[in-house]
Design brief:
- The protein is an alpha+beta fold.
- The chain contains 4 helices and 8 strands; from the N terminus they run αβββββββαβαα.
- A 5-stranded antiparallel beta sheet has the order 1-2-3-6-7.
- Strand 6 and strand 7 form a beta hairpin.
- The longest helix has 17 residues.
- Bound molecules: nickel (II) ion.
- Nickel (II) ion binds next to helix 2.
Length: 189
Amino acid sequence: MAILPIITFPDKVLRRKARKIKTIDRSIKRLSYDMVDTMNDAGGIGLAANQVGVLKRLIVVQLPEEEPRIYINPEILYREGSRMVEEGCLSVPGFVGNVERSIWVKFRALNLESKTIRIKADSLLAQVLEHEVDHLNGILYMDHLAEHEKLRPISPEEYSSAIRPGQEPDQRDDLTTFHTHSESEIHSS
Ligand code: NI
């Protein structure tokens, strides 16, 4: 297990398309576990392999109070509806922006045992899955900003509470900030 360095914008690897994984071997398993450690260490809820400099179609996701999920060759098969959410990314530290995401998605991937996983996801999970699959296609959330929207800089304190929605509300010193973020589902992935 290892914490990998997270590549930040504007590094070009974030703009490249990741390649499909043909064999789920030991190196893929090790990379998956390292990515889970890296995501947890950074306090994010999702991470794509591009973000650690590996152009392979692999993402990890961990929602608050859940076990980590590891998805190989993930695909969004169908999306429906649209909603605005405030979003951040571990590769774009210190900023958030309002982007349009789907109400729900149909998602398919392989797990580490090469079993096909199918999910119908909404809310935060749908948002993270769309965000991470975008990464594998070289797309960053800023690409989805509405024309009149701008990235908003946030303080390190605000950022660390924003990337852990719904956790430890009593330890936040600014309750107003907490409620605002909880409703708008700021996250970082
Ligand atoms: Ni991201």
